[in-house]
Amino acid sequence: MTATYPQAATRTAPVPAYRAFDVTVSRITRLSPHFIRLTFTGHDLDLFGDTGLDQRIKVVLPLSANSAAQLGDDEDPFGHFPRTEDWYARWRGLPEELRNPLRTYTIRAARPELGEVDVDFVSHGETGVASAWVNRVRTGDSCVLVGPDRRGDSARVGVEWKPGGATTVLLAGDETAVPAISSILAALPAHVCGQAFIEVPAAGDVLPLPAPRGVDITWLPRTEIGEPEDNHGKRLISAVTTGLSVESRRTMSEAGFDRADLDALGARDLGAGPLWETPGSEPGDGMFAWLAGEAHAITTLRRHLVRERGWDRRRVAFMGYWRAGSSGA
């Protein structure tokens, strides 16, 4: 007699939405005076789950970029970075001298069939840890990208471009938003119209961007090459507030909020917390605005749209990618 036993059910662990990918720099391309594209390659980048648009990732810099780090000649500069699902909490729990610097960037392009990912960086010399690193990096150097796994259960995690059925769009941002704006413009349906305002450090940083025929792109160089930069965001604010042709001059009641709501909005905008708010649901047809870049400039533009032009704040996504005077991750 042969005994038979029921087979145990096979359990498949869920794939985390975001995880670490160990990569190396395979190409370095100077796009303009201030834009540098790094192409990363890795053995499992075929699983990288890029959805295009404004997909955010973390670029983990080598431990040697941390001024508190003291590396030995044979020490792995990424050896302490956690590869577990709870990587962020574990990273935060490391001693400062063992905590790799990391920064948030937008994927410019992904070619999973080739195991490649492009990330565009803004170079401002030695003014920041990431800018200093990208100016020194060489092909073959190691890096870690924390991004989406295409097998995960949330394909759009890290994507804030959610215009729903909007047929008229406004895009506004500085150089840190150029990769996201570039991808969004390329993905827009042909029937969409609107405007894009992009502030960059210099005239040489103007890049060719494909977009639907009905979307006007306005580049706003702050300086000519070799001149000192003036106030960051000044040209962007001026251009949007004076040159925006997309109008929505509805009354406050038509827009769906009241004065108390606007006062609360102002309090949040002026606070010290993260300046980041996106609509909870995708709007129907009509207008949609996407604003990203230096926090003060983006907050000013958001306030202008909502308070002075009467835009429904549920149709405005705004992201303070960075704050002048701060170098947070």
UniProtKB/TrEMBL annotation:
Record domain FAD-binding FR-type: where: 18-170
InterPro entries in the cross-refs: FAD-bd_FR_type (IPR017927), FNR_nucleotide-bd (IPR039261), Riboflavin_synthase-like_b-brl (IPR017938), SIP_FAD-bd (IPR013113), SIP_fam (IPR039374), SIP_rossman_dom (IPR007037)
SUPFAM superfamilies for the chain: Riboflavin synthase domain-like (SSF63380)
Any GO MF annotation of the entry: oxidoreductase activity
CDD domains recorded: siderophore_interacting
Domain of life: Bacteria
Cited Pfam families: FAD_binding_9, SIP
Alphabetized PANTHER family for the sequence: FERRIC REDUCTASE, NADPH-DEPENDENT, NADPH-DEPENDENT FERRIC-CHELATE REDUCTASE
Name of this chain's protein: NADPH-dependent ferric siderophore reductase
Organism, as annotated: Halopolyspora algeriensis
